[in-house]
Amino acid sequence: MSSDQSAPGLPGPEGGDGPATRRRRGAPIAVAACAGAAVLAVTAGAVLWIRPWASDRPETPDAGPTAEVERTTLVRTETLEGTLGYAGNATVFAGGDGVVTSLPSTGAVLEPGDQVYEIDGEPTVLLRGDTPAYRVLEPGVSGDDVRQFEQALAELGYGGFTVDDEYTALTADAVRRWQEDTPGMKVTGTADPAHLSFAPGPVRVAGKELSVGEQAGPAAPVLTTSSEDHVVRVDLAVADRELVDEGDEVTVSLPEGGTAEGEVSSIGSVAEEPESEDPGGDEEGDPTVEVVVTFSGDAPEDLLDRAPVDVEVESDAKEDVLAVPVSALIALPGGGHGVTVVRGGEAMRDVPVETGWFADGMVEISGDGVDEGTEVVVPK
Known about the structure:
Blueprint: E1 39-43, E2 46-50, E3 66-68, E4 70-86, E5 90-93, E6 98-102, E7 109-110, E8 115-119, E9 122-128, H1 144-155, H2 169-181, E10 196-199, E11 203-208, E12 215-216, E13 221-226, E14 230-237, E15 249-253, E16 259-267, E17 288-295, E18 307-325, E19 330-331, E20 337-343, E21 347-359, E22 362-366, E23 375-377
Parallel strand pairs: 2-19, 9-10
Antiparallel strand pairs: 1-2, 3-23, 4-14, 4-18, 5-13, 6-8, 6-12, 7-11, 8-9, 11-13, 14-17, 15-16, 15-18, 16-17, 18-22, 19-20, 20-21, 21-22
């Protein structure tokens, strides 16, 4: 995790050193004085000019690159390590005994009506619904599971009955038509739970727990599935829990290059102890909670199935401040810091300033003679 921060040794908003932020990285500003000479010092990746104090400089033909003091909001960010993957992980269990005779390929997307797997030559079909099949449905049976099955059957185009919680003879007629159209399915007019697999919508085959030819038993794991939606999962240290809230906007750095905007969709409520990286060691990391980030709008195309990514989150912000690029700062030989103000494109004057927040290559400043729109030199 990294963030922009106040550089050590520079006065903060209250005149002291900038606040020390947990696990933020930053390089201190080194100040070196050399009478009558320009010496370079490095601060947070910017070049800092040091020169003797001059209350009024003689006119200079070219002040060089300049920037205006702007009134803005400075935002500090944290970088969280995440993993690109898919949402909605689930396991498909076998509904009965037998030999696995067919399985879909990993990565395949199954729609309602598609075959999920096959045991002893008989298919199990994906249907839309939230409740697992748990009993044989036949004429005379009633309940919420009947309504779910009838709704799923009607979505596949097999109607002629009223979608309700009663399994009638008309329902059985529609089931026979469906079974006749499904290769390998026995035509019985009843719905056997061994041949029904319910999911809220299309699923993506994430992995296989059995292979074709292996023996399956009741409730044995057959496949793992996910939704088609890409998400990023972050194992966030409990100590950093305050960094994010549900609904926060974030930026994801993609493994193929570029970035995408996202939103924190959920934060786990149970802390977990991560496993030790050393199988023989006793040391464990800090407890973490799972943070799930969804992409805003459609996810970028051609994303990898799984890959490490960085997630930039806003950790703090300060509004309505005057700020300039960090490279505009100069170190005054008598101590303190300043900026070189340009008047009329030529006349220059070094003006002392107080520094505050550092964020995203900008620094908060205040001082006499420095206002919004003031033009300052940004040394090359």
